[in-house]
Every structure is written in structure tokens, then in C-alpha cells.
């Protein structure tokens, strides 16, 4: 601890124990605790207390003051735990009877402050900190602390209850360390005292008829098996597994969610091998007994295991597919080859869940689809994967939701009424349908999938969120269709599908709902980016009114839509998919570049202007025809507009564009890989002095140096990177050493840029002055400074102590660091 902090510490302790003084807020107390943790990690806690007796006085006084703030009392309990984590300091505090007073039965437990959750939480966290050595275990056993922790497991505060369970896990692991660590077959009577007490409490809780008690025990076990992979955990499971099995025989099964978590945690533990038959038998029993709302996560977890008996994997997959099997059997199935869903017997609990209520049915289907979507890309997914039945099930679920399915049983009729217009299930099914595009499916089913997607895109009943999901699923199917071997003859259907798709897209681009227009434009952008070179796509797009409508949406009243329209038209222009000329729209079609420049300079919202800069940067990078016609004039015009923009993201994007122009002018950045072969630098296409003069002429140098002093840190950082790149490229031609600058001109320019003056004409900077400025500025140091957080000065411990003392009026005038 530094001398200044040592000097301030006694006054701070006096403020904390004085009820008349304003108490520092919880944030300051948390920062103070973090500081003490850092100090004790590097120093002896015992030496710290001996050199600063005010800390011991603080701990000894907090319980004697009846009107002390609960926050300060909690802070003191946690601070005592931090000090007592070192065993010699623990013994020192124990000699003074401080620890029993703070954490024993005579401590805060009997005070009125115990009713405050903050105090109870501080008490638990203090014990958690000090429980690091054998002496602490004896203390916990001798002073009844473990019994108090048991009672706090059911605390009304969820934070306190969770912390109590975490503490029990920590104490159990600490007790077994060196006890049964290498002896997994030790009997319970041979376990350490604290371990016996905790395990006995868990056993008692597992036999309880109160579900909260069972939940608490299962959560402690789950955390234990998740954190500890020592041999003693196997002995613990052998002792408790029979009681866990008994839970599966109750009706209803208590704490089913926590039970699933425990079974999966034990199954994932490396302590238990795949040959542990009793564990897998229990899991199989759970798959048969648990209800649909809980068995799904268990089945998914089992299927994600790398080592698991094949019979159990088959059972788990059948359980996971059961809801979709019920759906298919209740409706007219889509044609296709028989799959894994065929021949599965209806499960009574699954049918009951589907018929119970709309929320129950929707919840079960959404969870099933989400689980299968999570399972599909995994290498350990079941094989063969029932692609065709799953695709048929997804289409059927979507048809149930839009009312076009044909039920063949009373269950099917009930599902039609229950799922009609259910947005939640529609979104989940569309996500699942999009995922299935990655597999190989029969052509007939693929056409059905595309047909149902078109129906959803066209339906007036589709909500904006459902439409967005439908657009995303359609995009995934279109992007994957040429790569699907079994659908090689699907190409003949693509032109017709695209024509129908663009008719729907025209309708959606004219929607009164801005979210729909926005989603349609995003879809158009993505589709054009990936399919812009395909003849069928270009023909269908240019034959539609979609390009014209996208152009018109540049003037949309909603800024999000204008931004998406900018991106879409920019992408179409990059692909040469221009709006066809027509007499009635001659004026509006003169130049997209001028239109985007107008948006950049005049749009009142930031989103469209940012989109314009992204389009311009992409155009410059890709050599767009309108940009290549006069690149220097394009860059100069854009930078002139951007330099006046108040949106820092627009200015930052302007620097990105400037960096692209620099790389095209001077060459790409040099590699910094130590293993890369250093190739000689190519000679510049023109003398460096002329190149720099050209950069000055387009305003790039002026823009970059002004941005270096920008009040928004990301802009200054990007400018620093750009100037470092420029200096690095120039240095490779040995030009920095050759410069003979005009010193006065350089100093004047450097003063003008941070002041924001613009009296200097564009392009008047001399190349030699630019070289000298690059040489004189410590750009590496500036980059390091910009990388620091804005409060790095005020985060010092001394500043924290000064602020807390200033709150209590202990500092005079400018001694306080009031930032």
C-alpha cells in the first residue's frame, strides 16, 4: 500500500464507523473491496493489519453500533473475510475474538440489521472468502455457521439463497480436499466433519416432501459435480444416487428441471465413464418418466454427449421427435420416403401437452424445433438424420399455423384451431425450415418448402416479425439450392420461383408498415449480393418494379428504411442492376451517386448517412464505374461533406474510406508476421512528393489531422491508425529523413487543426511540412493514450479514498478528487 493511501486510511475508517457521516454509495464500497483484494494478493494481510490498526478497530466497532448503515456492515463482513483468507491473519483475528463476533451466533444474526438482505449477503460472502484453509473449516463447524447457511438456502432473497448454495459447495470441496480426495471408497463415517454435515443435510433434503428443499439439494449437487472432478465425487454419487432415483418414482416428480440439470452434469463429468450402467439406467428411466416440458432438454443433452450408450441415444432421439410425430400423424403427411418419424407410437403425455392449452402446445413445439435446430450441425447428431420427415414436419407446422393443413383426426382438428395465427410457433418453424436448407431433401419436398415460404411472404396475415423470418428462410434456401446434389434439376423451377418472389417483394416494398419495407430491402440486398451474377436472377429482377421501388424508398419518411434503401440500391448498382430508363422517371434517374451525396449532406438522421458511407467505401474498394471515372474528385467531395458531419460514426467511416484510398495509392499495409518473407517494396507509380501533394489536394491530410484531435475517441483512434499507416509507407521509401520542413508552417498547421479553424485553403499544405508533422508527432504514444479508458486517472485507490472522505467532509477544498 502506498504512503498516501496509508495516510488517508485512518480518516476513512473513522468516516465509515460514524453514523452521523454521509455513507459512501455501494459502488464506492465495492471498489474499496476490490482494492483491498488487490493489496492482500501482493502483501501479507497480517502485516497490513499490524501496520494499520485502524482496520482492526473498524471491524471491532461495526457490531457495537446499532444505527450503522447496513451497507457498511456488509462491507465490514466481507473485508474481514478477505483478511482472514490468509491463515496467519485468520489466527490473529481469532485471538482477538473478532471472527466469532462477526460470523458466530453472537454476531449480526441476532441484530435488527440481519433482516436486511445486504447484510446476510455480506455475511455469506465474508465466509466464502475466509474458507480457504483447514482452520476455517474448524471455525465453521465449531460456531454453527454451517447450520445458518442451511437456513439461508431458503432465503427470500434469491441472491442470498444462491450465495448460500454456492458456499456449501465450496465448503464441501474444501473439506474433501486431502480427506477423500484420493480415496473414493471412503465410507461416510470417515469423511471430514463439515462434509458429513453437508451431505447429511442433502440426504435429508432429497427425502423431503417440500419441493423447495429438494430443489436446493439438487442445485448444490449440480454445482458440486460441475466444479469438482475429483475421485471423491464418485463416492458422493454412489451414496446419493438411490435417493435421486426415488425422486423419479414420485408423482408428480419434484424439481424436475433441477433433476435434469443434475443428471446431465453427472453424465458430462469425466469421473463417470460410459461404462457406468447405473447412471445410464437412471437417465433412461428419467426419459420415460419426465413430462414433455422437461424431457426435451434431457434428451438434447444426452444426444450432445460424445460418449453414451447407443440404445440410450436412440431412446433420447425418439423422445425428442415425439411432438413432431404427433403433428404428422394428426394431418395429411406430405409425400416423401418413410423416415424415423414413421412407426413411432403416440405418447400420451405428449398428446396431452399438445392439447392442454395454446401456450402449452406452442411452448412444446417451439422447444422441440429449437432443440433439433441446435442438434443438426453437431458432429455427434444421430445418423441417419431424418431430413425428409423433418422437412415435412416443418411444412406441416407452418400450414397448421396458417390454416391450410388438412387434419385427419380430432387431434389434428384441435391443433388447427390452437395454432392458427400463432406467431411464436411460426417464427420457430421458419427458423427450423431455414436450417433444413443445409441438408439433402427430395425435390418434391423442397418445392413444398418454397411454396409455403411464398405463401407466408404473400399472406396479409403475416406479422412483420414472421415476414422477416420468412425472408431469412427463403434466402437460405436460395443460397443453398445450387449446392444440393439431389436437387440438381431444381434449376428449371428457379426462374418461375424468382418471378413469383419478385412480385411478392414488390408488394412488400409498398407496405404501410415500415418494418416490412425494411425487411424486404434487407432481403433484396442479401439476395443481390449472392445472386447478382446469375442470369435468371438478373432477368427476373430487371423485369420487375423492384429496382424502381428501392430507388423511391431513398425518400422514405422512416430513417431505418432510407438506410436500408441506400444499401440495397448501392448493392444493385455494384452489380450493374440499374433501374431501367423510362420517360416518366428521367429526372429521378440521372445519377445514384448524386442522390447518395445528397443524402450524405442533407439527411437529418444518422442511419442513412452511415449507410451512404458504407456504400461509398465499398464502391471505392471494388472499383465502381461511377467512382473510377474520377476517383480523386469522388474522394475529395465525400471527405469535404463528411468533415462537417456531427455523427462520429460517419466521420469514422470517412476515415475508413480515406484508408482504402491510401492503400490504393501507396500500396497495401506491410505484414507484421515474423514468419512472413519480407518482399521488397514496389516503387511508387509517381514521385512521393507528387503523391503527397495529391493527398493534400483531395483534403485527405487535412481531414486526417483534424480527426486526430476529434472529441470522439473512436474517430481519433482511427485517424491515428491511418496516419501511422501513412508514415509507415513513407518511411519505407526513406523519405522522412530527407524532409526539410518549413517549421513555422508546420506549427501553425498543428495549432489550427485542434482549434477547428478552416482558414487554410485546401491543398495548401506542403508535402515537406506533412512529412515533418508525421515525424514530430508521437503517434504510437497517442494511440496508447487513446486506448486507455476515459477514467483511468480517477480509478486510482488514492482518488477513491479522497472521494469517500470528501463525502464525509474530511477533506478541504481541492484535496477532493471530484471528477
UniProtKB/TrEMBL annotation:
One of its GO terms (biological process) is positive regulation of cell growth. The lineage of its organism: Eukaryota, Metazoa, Chordata, Craniata, Vertebrata. Keywords: Cytoplasm. One of its GO terms (cellular component) is cytosol. Belongs to the BRAT1 family. InterPro entries: ARM-like, ARM-type_fold, BRAT1. It is found in: Cytoplasm. PANTHER family: BRCA1-ASSOCIATED ATM ACTIVATOR 1. SUPFAM superfamilies: ARM repeat. This is BRCA1 associated ATM activator 1. GO terms for molecular function: ribonuclease inhibitor activity. It comes from Aotus nancymaae (Ma's night monkey).
Amino acid at each position: 500500500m502506498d504512503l498516501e493511501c496509508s495516510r488517508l486510511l485512518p480518516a476513512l475508517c473513522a468516516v465509515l464507523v460514524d453514523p452521523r457521516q454521509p455513507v459512501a454509495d455501494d459502488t464506492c464500497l465495492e471498489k474499496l473491496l476490490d482494492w483491498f483484494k488487490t493489496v492482500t494478493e501482493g502483501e501479507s494481510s497480517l502485516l497490513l493489519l499490524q501496520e494499520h490498526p485502524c482496520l482492526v478497530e473498524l471491524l471491532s466497532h461495526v457490531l457495537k453500533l446499532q444505527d450503522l448503515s447496513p451497507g457498511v456492515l456488509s462491507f465490514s463482513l466481507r473485508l474481514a473475510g478477505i483478511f482472514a483468507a490468509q491463515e496467519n491473519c485468520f489466527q490473529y483475528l481469532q485471538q482477538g475474538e473478532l471472527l466469532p463476533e462477526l460470523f458466530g451466533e453472537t454476531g449480526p444474526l441476532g441484530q435488527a440489521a440481519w433482516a436486511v438482505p445486504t447484510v446476510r449477503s455480506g455475511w455469506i460472502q465474508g465466509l466464502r472468502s475466509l474458507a480457504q484453509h483447514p482452520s476455517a473449516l474448524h471455525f465453521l463447524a465449531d460456531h454453527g455457521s454451517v447450520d445458518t447457511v442451511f437456513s439461508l438456502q431458503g432465503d427470500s432473497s434469491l441472491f442470498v439463497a444462491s450465495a448460500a448454495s454456492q458456499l456449501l459447495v465450496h465448503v464441501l470441496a474444501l473439506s474433501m480436499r486431502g480427506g477423500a480426495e484420493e480415496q473414493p471408497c471412503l465410507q461416510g463415517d470417515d469423511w471430514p466433519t463439515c462434509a458429513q454435515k453437508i451431505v447429511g443435510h442433502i440426504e435429508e433434503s432429497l427425502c423431503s416432501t417440500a419441493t423447495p428443499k429438494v430443489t436446493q439439494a439438487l442445485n448444490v449437487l449440480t454445482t458440486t459435480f460441475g466444479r469438482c472432478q475429483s475421485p471423491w465425487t464418485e463416492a458422493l454419487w454412489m451414496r446419493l444416487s438411490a435417493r435421486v432415483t426415488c425422486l423419479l418414482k414420485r408423482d408428480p416428480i419434484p424439481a424436475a428441471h433441477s433433476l435434469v440439470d443434475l443428471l446431465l452434469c453427472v453424465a458430462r463429468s469425466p469421473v463417470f465413464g460410459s461404462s457406468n450402467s447405473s447412471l445410464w439406467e437412471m437417465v433412461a428411466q428419467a426419459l420415460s418418466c419426465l413430462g414433455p416440458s422437461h424431457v426435451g432438454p434431457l434428451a438434447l443433452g444426452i444426444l450432445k454427449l460424445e460418449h453414451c450408450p447407443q440404445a440410450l441415444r436412440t431412446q433420447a432421439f425418439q423422445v425428442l421427435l415425439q411432438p413432431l410425430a404427433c403433428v404428422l400423424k394428426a394431418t395429411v403427411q406430405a409425400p416423401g420416403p418413410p423416415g424415423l418419424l414413421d412407426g413411432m407410437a403416440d405418447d400420451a403425455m405428449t398428446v396431452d401437452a399438445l392439447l392442454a392449452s395454446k401456450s402449452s402446445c406452442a411452448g412444446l413445439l417451439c422447444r422441440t424445433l429449437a432443440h433439433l435446430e441446435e442438434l443438426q450441425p453437431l458432429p455427434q447428431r444421430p445418423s441417419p438424420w431424418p431430413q425428409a420427415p423433418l422437412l415435412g414436419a416443418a411444412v406441416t407446422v407452418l400450414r397448421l399455423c396458417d390454416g391450410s393443413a388438412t387434419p385427419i383426426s380430432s387431434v389434428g382438428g384441435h391443433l388447427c384451431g390452437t395454432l392458427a395465427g400463432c406467431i411464436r410457433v411460426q417464427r420457430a418453424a421458419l427458423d427450423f425450415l431455414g436450417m433444413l436448407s443445409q441438408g439433402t431433401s427430395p425435390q418434391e419436398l423442397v418445392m413444398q418448402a418454397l411454396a409455403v415460404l411464398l405463401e407466408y411472404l404473400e399472406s396479409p396475415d403475416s406479422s412483420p416479425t414472421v415476414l422477416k423470418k420468412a425472408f431469412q428462410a427463403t434466402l437460405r434456401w436460395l443460397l443453398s439450392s445450387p449446392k444440393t446434389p439431389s436437387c440438381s434439376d431444381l434449376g428449371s423451377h428457379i426462374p418461375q420461383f424468382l418471378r413469383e418472389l419478385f412480385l411478392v417483394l414488390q408488394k412488400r416494398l409498398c407496405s404501410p408498415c415500415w418494418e416490412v419495407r425494411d425487411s424486404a430491402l434487407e432481403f433484396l440486398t442479401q439476395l443481390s449480393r449472392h445472386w447478382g451474377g446469375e442470369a435468371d436472377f438478373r432477368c427476373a429482377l430487371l423485369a420487375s418494379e423492384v429496382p424502381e421501388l428501392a430507388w423511391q424508398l431513398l425518400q422514405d419518411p422512416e430513417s431505418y428504411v432510407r438506410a436500408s434503401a441506400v444499401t440495397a440500391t448501392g448493392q444493385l448498382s455494384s452489380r450493374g442492376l440499374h433501374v431501367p430508363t423510362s420517360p416518366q422517371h428521367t429526372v429521378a434517374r440521372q445519377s445514384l451517386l448524386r442522390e447518395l451525396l445528397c443524402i450524405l449532406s442533407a439527411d437529418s438522421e444518422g442511419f442513412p448517412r452511415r449507410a451512404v458511407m458504407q456504400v461509398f467505401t465499398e464502391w471505392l474498394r471494388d472499383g465502381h464505374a461511377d467512382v473510377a471515372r474520377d476517383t480523386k474528385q469522388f474522394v475529395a467531395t465525400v471527405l469535404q461533406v463528411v468533415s462537417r458531419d456531427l455523427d462520429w460514426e460517419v466521420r469514422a467511416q470517412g476515415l475508413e474510406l480515406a484508408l482504402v484510398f491510401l492503400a490504393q495509392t501507396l500500396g497495401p499495409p506491410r505484414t507484421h508476421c515474423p514468419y512472413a518473407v519480407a518482399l521488397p517494396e514496389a516503387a511508387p507509380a509517381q514521385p512521393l512528393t507528387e503523391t503527397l501533394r495529391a493527398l493534400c489536394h483531395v483534403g485527405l491530410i487535412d481531414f486526417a489531422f483534424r480527426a486526430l484531435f476529434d472529441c470522439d475517441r473512436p474517430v481519433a483512434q482511427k485517424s491515428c491508425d491511418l496516419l501511422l499507416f501513412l508514415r509507415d509507407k513513407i518511411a519505407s521509401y526513406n523519405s522522412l529523413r530527407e524532409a526539410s520542413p518549413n517549421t513555422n508552417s508546420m506549427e501553425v498547421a498543428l495549432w489550427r487543426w485542434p482549434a477547428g479553424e478552416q482558414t487554410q485553403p485546401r491543398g495548401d499544405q506542403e508535402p515537406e511540412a506533412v512529412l515533418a508533422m508525421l515525424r514530430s508527432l508521437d503517434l504510437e504514444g497517442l494511440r496508447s493514450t487513446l486506448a486507455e479508458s476515459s477514467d483511468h486517472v480517477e480509478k486510482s485507490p488514492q482518488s477513491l479514498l479522497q472521494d469517500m472522505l470528501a463525502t464525509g467532509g474530511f477533506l478541504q477544498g481541492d484535496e477532493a478528487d471530484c471528477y
